[in-house]
Design the sequence.
C-alpha cells in the first residue's frame, strides 16, 4: 500500500460539566486526509479544500503534518516522503473538534501506511501536539474520542491517562452549529481563573453523576448531572440566544443541552433519532428567525473513530 484515504470524526468536548476531561465522537461531520508515500523525503501538503484558504499549507504550521512529523521522529522514520491532501468536510471554528479530526485522520493514515499494528492510543501524544499547534493548549478531550471512538474520560494529563466509558446504546445527539465566530483561544481566555469551593463541589458531583449515569445507562441521571456552573455561564454569552435554545430543546424532550467544546456549536442528548431530529430542526428554525444561518447534524455516539474510506 502506497496511498490511503482516511476519515476522522467530529467530536463534542467538555460534555457540559467535564471541561477538558470528557468528550465523545459522532458519525458526522468529519475530515478526510489522502496520504501518499513518495520517493522524496519530507512532508508536503499538496492540497487543502473546504477551508476557504484559512489553513496554512506549510508543513511546519499545519496540525496534520506537525503531528505526523512527531510520530515519525518517535519511530525513527524521518526519511519517509509523504504527499498529503486535506479535505475539510466540517466547519472550522465550530466547537466540533475540526483541527482534531484533521490531525487524527493524518495520524491514522501514516500508522496504517507503515503497517504499525500498535494500539491507536499510542498516537494520542502526537495528536495532542497538533492541538497545541491549533489552539495553544494541548488538551485531549477532542483528539482522544476522535482517535479512539466512543465516550472518553481524560483522567489525567500528567501522566496521560484516558478511560473509555460505556454509554446507553440508544443515546442520540443533535448538534446545531450557528454561523457565528467563537475562536477557541478567545473562548479559553474568558474562563475564570479562580472558583469558589461550593462551585467546585457542585461540578465534581455533576461529573461523577454523569459518569455514573453512563455506566448505569440511566438517562435521567445523565440529564440531571449535565449542568455546568463554572464555564458555561461565561461562554454562553458568546452564543446568541443560548438559554432560549436550551429551553426550546428541553421543552421538546431533550435529556440535556449544552455547548460543544468552546462553541458556538450546541448539542442536545435525546432518547431517539426522531426527538434529536426535531430538536435540531426547531433550533435551526429559531436561528433563522433571528437572522443566523446554521448547520445541523444528528448522530449516535461513534464508537469506531477513524476509518479507511479508500
Sequence:
Amino acid at each position: 500500500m502506497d496511498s490511503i484515504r482516511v476519515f476522522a470524526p467530529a467530536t463534542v468536548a467538555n460534555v457540559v460539566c467535564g471541561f477538558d476531561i470528557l468528550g465523545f465522537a459522532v458519525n458526522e461531520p468529519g475530515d478526510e486526509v489522502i496520504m501518499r508515500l513518495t520517493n522524496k523525503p519530507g512532508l508536503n501538503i499538496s492540497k487543502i479544500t473546504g477551508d476557504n484558504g484559512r489553513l496554512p499549507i506549510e508543513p511546519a504550521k499545519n496540525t496534520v503534518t506537525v503531528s505526523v512529523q512527531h510520530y515519525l521522529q518517535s519511530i525513527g522514520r524521518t526519511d519517509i516522503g509523504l504527499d498529503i491532501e486535506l479535505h475539510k468536510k466540517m466547519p472550522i471554528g465550530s466547537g466540533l473538534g475540526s483541527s482534531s479530526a484533521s490531525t487524527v485522520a493524518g495520524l491514522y493514515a501514516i500508522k496504517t501506511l507503515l503497517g504499525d499494528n500498535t494500539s491507536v492510543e499510542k498516537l494520542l501524544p502526537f495528536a495532542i501536539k497538533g492541538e497545541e499547534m491549533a489552539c495553544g493548549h494541548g488538551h485531549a478531550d477532542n483528539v482522544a474520542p476522535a482517535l479512539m471512538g466512543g465516550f472518553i474520560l481524560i483522567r489525567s494529563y500528567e501522566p496521560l491517562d484516558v478511560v473509555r466509558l460505556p454509554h446507553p446504546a440508544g443515546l442520540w445527539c443533535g448538534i446545531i452549529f450557528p454561523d457565528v465566530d467563537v475562536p477557541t483561544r478567545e473562548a479559553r481566555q474568558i474562563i475564570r481563573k479562580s472558583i469558589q469551593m461550593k462551585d467546585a463541589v457542585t461540578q465534581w458531583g455533576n461529573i461523577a453523576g454523569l459518569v455514573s449515569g453512563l455506566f448505569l445507562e440511566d438517562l435521567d441521571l445523565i440529564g440531571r448531572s449535565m449542568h455546568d456552573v463554572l464555564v458555561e455561564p461565561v461562554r454562553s454569552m458568546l452564543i446568541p440566544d443560548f438559554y432560549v435554545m436550551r429551553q426550546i430543546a428541553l421543552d421538546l424532550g431533550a435529556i440535556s443541552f449544552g455547548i460543544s467544546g468552546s462553541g458556538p456549536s450546541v448539542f442536545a442528548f435525546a432518547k431517539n433519532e426522531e426527538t434529536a431530529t426535531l430538536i435540531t430542526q426547531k433550533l435551526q428554525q429559531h436561528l433563522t428567525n433571528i437572522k443566523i444561518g446554521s448547520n445541523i447534524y444528528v448522530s449516535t455516539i461513534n464508537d469506531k473513530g477513524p476509518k479507511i474510506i479508500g
Summary: The two ends are 11 Å apart (CA to CA). The mean pLDDT is 94.
